[in-house]
Amino acid sequence: MAERYSSFTPGGTGWLLQRLTAGFLAVVLAFHFLQLHFINHAADVTFAGTQARMENVGYFLVMVLFLITAAFHGLNGIYNALVNQGLSGGAKKAMFAVLSLAGIALVVQGIYVALAMAGYTT
C-alpha cells in the first residue's frame, strides 16, 4: 500500500485554513450561482446590474471576502500540491514568493475593480 504524504500538518494552521476557506467558498459559491444563474439569468446580467449589486455594502463585502478567500485557497492548494510532489529548497522558497506575489496582485486588482464597480473610485 502506498504511503500517504501531505505537506499539511494535520491540525495545523495551514490545514485548518484550507478547510475553513473550502467551507466558506462552498457557501458563497452556492449564493453566487443562485444570485447570478437562477434569480438573474446569465443573459440578464448587465454592467449596470453589477454596479447596482456592488453598491450594496453587504454584497460588496461578501464579494471581496469571496475574492480573498478564493485566492488564498487556490494558491495555497497549488503550493501544497507542488510540495507534495517533492518541491523543496530554493525552488520551494521561490515558488512561495511567486505565488504570494501573484495572490497579492490578484487581490489588489480585484479589490480595485470591486471599488470601481461600487462607485468608490473615479
Notes on the structure:
The protein is elongated. Helix 1 (13-39) packs across helix 3 (57-84) and helix 3 runs antiparallel to helix 4. It has one domain (13-117). The mean pLDDT is 89. The N and C termini lie far apart (60 Å). It has helices at residues 13-39, 47-54, 57-84, 89-117. It contains four helices and no strands. The chain is mainly α and 122 residues long.
C-alpha end-to-end distance:
60 Å
Helix and strand sequence: HHHH
Apparent shape: elongated
Q: How many distinct beta strands?
A: 0
The radius of gyration is 18 Å
Proportion of residues in helical segments: over 70%
What's the structural domain tally?
1
- Provide the structure class: mainly alpha
Approximately what portion of the residues adopt beta-strand conformation? under 5%
Number of helices: 4
Mind summarizing the main beta sheet?
A: none
Low-confidence stretches: none
Average of per-residue pLDDT values: 89
Notable features of this structure?
4 helices, elongated, mainly alpha, 122 residues
Offer a concise description of the structure:
This protein has about 120 residues and is an all-alpha fold. The chain is built from four helices and no strands.
Topology at a glance:
Layout: H1 13-39, H2 47-54, H3 57-84, H4 89-117
